[in-house]
Design goal:
Blueprint: E1 8-13, H1 18-21, H2 24-32, E2 36-43, H3 57-74, E3 79-85, H4 95-109, E4 113-117, H5 127-142, E5 160-165, E6 183-186, H6 191-199, H7 205-216, E7 221-229
Helix pairs in contact: 3-6, 4-5
């Protein structure tokens, strides 16, 4: 009898700081269990409102790549990568070509679980988040189909696709239309490190300071919606993204 292959988690995001703000607890809890974690970020965040000391968009992008790497280190992420898509422009990207990049990564990384945004665009209803959700959803399914991009490596069927969702809205911001959650993660044991990871995004600290007190009251849990899986089943509530795998 051979041992099971080590469990793997792939998280696909739009901007540096998404990985800690939206998914940090899930990434750290997985790492604590010895699960290999990877984060793929589409842009380097050059269109951000908060720009730190950057004198140009290119300089901001370089700064945010460094911040992203520092955050991933705090989150114990095994692999991290930033693609070269333009911030705030993902809705204009070629859908098939972009999904193909994710198909190749999924077939290469071979994750058991994939995390990304829901179609609501997240807490700030960002169009980039909605597009990342669409690209990732297509790639999750297409990576398992031999007829889709046969030149991009052997097919891989990831076991579960989850969207991050929320149990609250931020004050003073347009409210998203979030999906009901099927998973509640207790991330209280790593909550302090989640904030530490966000603080490593020094260019974005004004955003953190604006919402920190509000968010701290609600940051002990993360909520996810099971969007796809390998077997027909009724919706049920769970407390573990990897239960039964």
């Amino acid at each position: 009898m051979t041992d099971k292959a080590p469990l793997k988690l792939l998280c696909i995001t739009a901007h540096p700081d998404d990985e800690c703000f939206g998914f940090g607890g899930a990434l750290m809890l997985a790492a604590e269990r010895g699960i290999e974690t990877s984060v793929l970020c589409f842009t380097d965040g050059q269109a951000a409102t908060n720009r730190g000391t950057a004198a140009s968009s290119a300089e901001l992008g370089r700064m945010r790549r460094v911040e992203f790497a520092a955050s991933c280190k705090i989150l114990d992420v095994t692999h991290h990568e930033v693609l070269d898509y333009q911030d705030a422009q993902l809705e204009f990207a070629n859908f098939s070509q972009t999904a193909a990049i994710l198909v190749e990564r999924i077939r290469s990384y071979r994750p058991h679980v994939v995390l990304t945004f829901g179609s609501d665009g997240g807490q700030n209803t960002h169009a980039d988040h909605t597009m990342v959700s669409a690209f990732t959803t297509a790639a999750f399914h297409w990576a398992a189909q031999a007829k889709r991009f046969p030149d991009l490596g052997p097919i891989h069927t990831a076991q579960r696709l989850f969207y991050t969702t929320s149990s609250f809205f931020f004050p003073g911001r347009p409210s998203p239309l979030p999906a009901p959650w099927t998973v509640t993660l207790d991330v209280s044991s790593v909550q302090h490190r989640k904030f530490e990871a966000f603080r490593s995004h020094t260019s974005q600290l004004p955003l953190m300071e604006r919402f920190e007190s509000f968010f701290k009251q609600r940051a002990s849990t993360e909520h996810y919606t099971l969007a796809a899986t390998t077997r027909p089943q009724p919706a049920a509530h769970a407390t573990d993204l990897f239960a039964g795998l």
